[in-house]
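Usage

Read records sequentially. Each one opens with the input sequence:
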Amino acid sequence: MSEQGHERGGWSPSRSAAGDRNPWLVAIIVSIATFMVVLDTAIANVSLRYIAGSLGASIDESTWVVTTYLIANAVVLPVSGWLSNVIGRKRFYMICVALFTVSSLLCGLAPSLNALIFFRILQGLGGGGMPTSEQAILADTFPPERRAQAFALYGIAVIVAPTVGPTLGGWITDNYSWHWIFFINIPIGIASLLLVNWVLVEPEILKRERRQMLAGGLHIDWIGFALIALTFGSLEFVLDRGQEDDWFKSNMILAFTLITAASFVFFLLWELTERDPIVDLRLLFRRQFAIAFLIMMTVGAILFGSNQILPQLLQTSFPYTAELSGLAVMPGGLAMLFMMPIAGQVTGLMQPKYWIAIGLGAVALSMWYSTSLTPDATFWYFAKVRIFQVIGLPFLFIPINAIAYEGLPQNKTSEGSALINVARNLGGSIGVSLANTELLRRSQFHQSRLVENTIPSSPVFHSTMQQMTQYFTHQGAPPTAAQSHAFGFIGQMVASQATLLAYIDVFYTWAIFTALLVPVVLLAIKRVSGPSRAAAH
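and closes with the structure output:
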């Protein structure tokens, strides 16, 4: 196919990473490392308490184990497309896998919290560089009519891994030690390296493009790299620490917010005028790609936000252990495992915007159903809720990629993949932060309203106090102590009810926000060119 065909977004087997091998083997191999990396974003969450105790740190300090990983991911993702083009796609991918694997070993051997945080940064840099190469490999290896199925296989790793992460992390920590949540990456990483080196090829056309890029000397956009690193690093810090430090009442949060805003503005101005920018922001001026970017942010917010909120609900308002809460959300992962291949098969039957609207509608209805939460909810209720929450996501993930790559030049697939992954991770960070903020503030609101009824003149409060005082008296407590215990019990009950109502409010917010996106999608997204393009990615 001619280079002109590439510029029109055409496909050519000369760009395939499969060579003369079966392209599905390539899809399976890149999904192995994907699963490992995405799993690591969730698996450490349930082990923080054990990590803190083992390394002599506080719980607050141990959260940096998660935060630094996310910051490193956020910093390297936007520039990974450029790095892949400069270094060579296969070579860059293998470097990322090797860095992730080695740093996983070092994390498991870390003698102190500071050492663990440093190694997590290295791990995040390696992990953040992989998705761009993987998605570009799939887009170049599969023709448009088969990309939906390829991305469905890849999507299983991306979406299911965060679901099984808490369960696996809880089981490993309870039965072995937290060190093994990092050690399990080592055999997977080694296997991935060997398979990539054996199966994947670097197409000659990519080598030629790389030589052309480097012919005039390597121009490194150091200023752009520094600005994007400062922007995303500062933003991740604000989103992670904002609620804990009371947002803009904290001088540190205010300072990092100003740094984020200023560095982002300078980054935009610099990249749009730079001859060889490290991030091609002009892709966001393409209507379809920009809409795909925004919708992927929404998917990231829902996926990562619900992945954190539901296990958190089970471990705070219900007597669930880390392992049991992970088991409660696992049926959702199994449901997506079942639905992803189906979504890959049927998404070519309609225009992508209709599938995206259906997916968003399903998510909105599931979040609305989640507001039926009650204090006596059972394990199977939560399992059912999780299935409903995620069953629509496969019908978002695949069509979003279809519209993102519609009309995108073939030599821009790496940069496009980088930005789409930035959207997912950025949306996830924002979603988690906003959900936790709403959770705390609505909990305070409901508690203040419930406390209004705990006054001596209230018949319900007076009756409850009498009953609870009698109960504690019968348990052997002196009358004064029994009354004190009764006050404490009522206070605990009020706090518990307020927290439960706050979780319901979060589900309401997600339901309304997602439902409002449906007409926006139907009106804003254009038709893709031809039925095969509907299944393009």
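Summary fields computed downstream for this record:
- The radius of gyration is 25 Å.
- The chain has 22 helices and no strands.
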